């Protein structure tokens, strides 16, 4: 069995920056960069930050929020910056900022932001503990506080959905449970760690 190090790590130890030129193959039917292309870069950068923090495999369990603030155009350079905002027992929230740059005019724009939640896995694919996070600056401490607020919002939303569905009874017909359905085993695992303790993962 692998001995996972749980020495606290600073935010700066796992920061990730990806830079990529947007090409014709990245375009959608509107002639601008496809949102899915940006989302893949966001998930990649966030996943690398999570892996660097936990020192092993980490998988995406939720994209808590993805905001597209401005279009990215073909020929732009996209810069994706990811950093860990907070951690739970086995989970990691990563914040991502997306910027674009016109290589001709040097004009830059903040084009997107996202928050993703990952869970660290051991060699058998089970959730395992992650190192505590050390917020070194006031900005990092603010992000950590906001991450805890998002966690509470996710938990409250899940409780409200569960209570509503218990009140109205089972759905008519047959439909697959979605990842946000409290009856879905994935959702149950997201609420608590193997020891039954509530943590960040959603």
Question: What does this molecule look like?
Answer:
The protein is α+β, with helices and mostly antiparallel strands and 202 residues long. The protein has one domain: Thiol Ester Dehydrase, Chain A (Roll), CATH 3.10.129.10. Helix content is 29%, strand content 29%. It contains 3 helices and 7 strands; from the N terminus they run E-E-H-E-E-E-E-E-H-H. Strand 4 and strand 5 form a beta hairpin. The protein is globular and about 50 Å long. The C terminus is likely disordered.
CATH topology: Thiol Ester Dehydrase, Chain A
How many β-strand stretches?
7
Question: For the CA atoms, what is the radius of gyration?
Answer: 19 Å
Q: How far is it from the N-terminal to the C-terminal residue, by CA?
A: 27 Å
Number of domains as seen in the coordinates: 1
Short description:
The protein is of the alpha+beta class.
Task: Compile the SSE list and pairings.
Layout: E1 9-10, E2 16-21, H1 35-54, E3 58-68, E4 76-87, E5 91-102, E6 108-120, E7 133-134, H2 138-168, H3 185-191
Parallel strand pairs: 1-7
Antiparallel strand pairs: 2-4, 3-6, 4-5, 5-6
């Amino acid at each position: 069995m692998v001995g996972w190090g749980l020495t606290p790590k600073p935010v700066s130890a796992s920061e990730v920056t990806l830079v990529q030129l947007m090409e014709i193959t990245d375009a959608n039917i509107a002639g601008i960069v496809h949102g899915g292309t940006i989302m893949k870069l966001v998930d990649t950068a966030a996943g690398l930050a999570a892996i660097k923090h936990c020192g092993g495999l980490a998988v995406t369990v939720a994209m808590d929020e993805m905001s597209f603030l401005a279009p990215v155009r073909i020929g732009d350079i996209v810069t994706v910056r990811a950093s860990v905002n907070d951690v739970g027992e086995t989970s990691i929230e990563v914040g991502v900022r997306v910027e674009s740059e016109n290589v001709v005019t040097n004009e830059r724009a903040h084009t997107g932001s996202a928050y993703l939640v990952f869970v660290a896995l051991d060699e058998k694919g089970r959730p395992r503990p992650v190192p505590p996070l050390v917020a070194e600056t006031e900005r990092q401490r603010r992000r950590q506080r906001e991450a805890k607020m998002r966690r509470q919002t996710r938990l409250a939303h899940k409780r409200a959905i569960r209570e509503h569905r218990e009140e109205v009874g089972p759905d008519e017909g047959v439909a697959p449970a979605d990842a946000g359905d409290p009856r879905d085993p994935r959702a149950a695992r997201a609420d608590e760690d193997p020891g039954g303790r509530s943590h960040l993962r959603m």
